[in-house]
Amino acid sequence: MSPAVGGRFGDFGGRYVPEALVAALEELEEAWRDAMGDPDFTDELARLHRDYTGRPSPLTEVPRFAEHAGGVRVLLKREDLNHTGSHKINNVLGQALLTVRMGKKRVIAETGAGQHGVATATAAALLGLDCVVYMGEVDTRRQALNVARMRLLGAEVVPVATGSATLKDAINEAMRDWVTNVEDTHYLLGTVTGPHPFPSMVREFHSIIGTEAREQVLERTGRLPDAVCACVGGGSNAMGIFSGFLDDEGVALYGFEAGGEGIESGRHAARFSGGEPGVLHGAATYVLQDEDGQTRETHSVSAGLDYPSVGPEHAYLHDTGRATYEPVTDAEAMDAFALLCRTEGIIPAIESAHALAGALRVGRRLAEDAGDEVPVVVVNLSGRGDKDVDTAARWFGLVDAEDLVEAEQLKAEEPVSEAEGSGW
Amino acid sequence: MSALEQVFARCREEGRAALVAYLPAGYPDLETSVAAVRAVAEAGADVVEVGVPYTDPLMDGPVIEQAASQALAAGFRLSQVFEVVRAVAEAGAVPVVMSYWNPVLRYGPDRFARDLAAAGGAGLITPDLVPDEAGAWLAAADAHGVDPVFLVAPSSTDERLRMTTEHCRGFVYVASTMGVTGARSEVGSSAEGLVARTRAVTDLPLCVGLGVSTGEQAAQVAAFADGVIVGSALVRTVGEDPGLDRLRELTAELARGVVNPAAAPPAGAGA
């Protein structure tokens, strides 16, 4: 059950936006509610989930990984196996269909790790929409492969150099574009934050993760899990899987934030450990901010979690105690990343590796208190790690530093005009 | 009668529109920003909007965004905004503050209204706070006699125009174009229509902002609005000439523009 009442989750949520956007938000809310009651829309979305995305995504048990989690059973919800390689496609297909329904021709999006940008560019190509993706300049460097992928799909990628040049600044720039072009443009926001109805709408489009996971775990184990773990940047994959278990009081819900170099270092993106209630990007929620209300710079090895704010429903779940949020450091996440690679042959996104590290922690705790029955932990594996191979290779020193420098020099020497003039 | 009501009444008596000048506090540094607000007040601005630099100014274009980051890098602190407000009042113009909501929320809406009033501030313009979410602010503004100023936009429905203006005091900020702040070669043609639609639902003075940068444009807007708001064009001159001579010149040109709209040269004839 969603606690949303009039766009609020307790004290959180709302619509803190320029007046110019209010009409568009009202139009969007109406279109969304209308569409969800229209079998033509829901059938088309279900068809795309099945025939295009490849849903339902499997639930994979990972026993060799689970040995490191105190011996509990660990089941991965495989959103990494979706078309485009992450959970993001669930929401994007829903919103892209809504865009067509509203008669708009252009979508804009923000992206951090690039997963949402790739999903948006994909749906835009599929449905014939113009697509512009805003991405922090720092992130375009961290996620060069996804930038190329978006451009191949026909999207324009705009690097944003203002502020910290990461996800938050990409959102600012997308909002500016939207304020200017709202008549023919839909802002295809990629997570459960922003002004109402985005947090509720994006969660609903991702609730398919939780619905499937609940059915699958019941079928597989004959009972509900003890814990559900997910990483939380904006929080869309977490809300998606949490939504299937919110009413099951015996299922503990865990969200893992980017602890970066540690909370005490100040270089992190853990809103519930270091943030305060405030307003950012259209919603009242927890924000990493200073005593003047200025947004703090964040840090994470994962571009997708490097964000100073969090979806308002998570703020509500935190304050009510229904979900528990803990930071996971860069180092812990990368250790879990390596462990899943080596024990199960699955390369996860670094975002998802935060949830895996958290699951190791939760599993060991559960194992200590376990009775006769082996505890069950479900982890939302929100994305695959192809885009992160370069980051991981550097982290683990798997490539010769001199080779990397040489490769970059070779890249820099290639004539830029050739790429630009090739018709892409 | 509030200070804002008085200044618009006086302008009306003089048969002209008011000139509303926007400058960010702390840009390029606190001292220069204090001198800059004094300069625009002395050169003919009736109302000075003191902007609060914010890390995420999503309604602002590149000029004001850049000014905000420079002010923050120079060490701007929120409490300094009241110092700048006081300087405006001392120089004889009416100060209002423009701020995104989170800094005010963090400072405490009641404490902010109290300190703003104590510094001589007449009102607060909130670009990302619509009346629907403004309960706490409206109560604080009421308690301390500060005027809440909300924006209306070309996309506002008639129903929202009515609701929004009912919650405004002092004046209504009419955002003339859909988009962010910044000088434009033409002020959107939607401005006049939006002013007319807003006029139909309120007696408050209507000030038009977003896009005005020359005396000529100011004169065009003054022909149908009660106030002309100029921001980015002024901010740019502060950046280019911290000695502030160009700021004084541009303000004087804009002030001439709003004084006698009927005598303004036709569009394209040069200002």
Automatic annotation (TrEMBL), chain A:
Q: What is its EC number?
A: 4.2.1.20
Family, per entry: Belongs to the TrpB family.
- Name the UniProt record assigns to this protein: Tryptophan synthase beta chain
Underlying gene: trpB
For this UniProt entry, what's an example GO CC term?
A: cytoplasm
Pfam families documented for this protein: PALP
PROSITE patterns in the cross-refs = TRP_SYNTHASE_BETA (PS00168)
Describe the protein's quaternary organization and the partners it interacts with: Tetramer of two alpha and two beta chains.
N6-(pyridoxal phosphate)lysine (modified residue): where?
A: 88
- Which stretches make up the Tryptophan synthase beta chain-like PALP domain? 54-378
Keyword entries, A-Z: Amino-acid biosynthesis, Aromatic amino acid biosynthesis, Lyase, Pyridoxal phosphate, Tryptophan biosynthesis
Q: Which reaction does it catalyse?
A: (1S,2R)-1-C-(indol-3-yl)glycerol 3-phosphate + L-serine = D-glyceraldehyde 3-phosphate + L-tryptophan + H2O
List the InterPro entries hit by this protein, alphabetically: Trp_synth_b_CS, Trp_synth_beta, Trp_synth_beta/beta-like, TrpB-like_PALP, TrpB-like_PALP_sf
Pathway info = Amino-acid biosynthesis; L-tryptophan biosynthesis; L-tryptophan from chorismate: step 5/5
User: Which cofactors does this gene product need?
Assistant: pyridoxal 5'-phosphate
The UniProt GO MF terms for this protein read: tryptophan synthase activity
Species assigned in the record = Ornithinimicrobium humiphilum
UniProtKB/TrEMBL annotation, chain B:
Q: Which reaction does it catalyse?
A: (1S,2R)-1-C-(indol-3-yl)glycerol 3-phosphate + L-serine = D-glyceraldehyde 3-phosphate + L-tryptophan + H2O
List each coiled-coil range: none
Molecular function (GO) terms for this protein are: tryptophan synthase activity
Name the catalytic site residues: 49 (proton acceptor), 60 (proton acceptor)
The protein's Enzyme Commission number: 4.2.1.20
Q: How does it assemble?
A: Tetramer of two alpha and two beta chains.
Q: What function is annotated for this protein?
A: The alpha subunit is responsible for the aldol cleavage of indoleglycerol phosphate to indole and glyceraldehyde 3-phosphate.
Q: Of which family is this protein a member?
A: Belongs to the TrpA family.
Return the protein name. Answer: Tryptophan synthase alpha chain
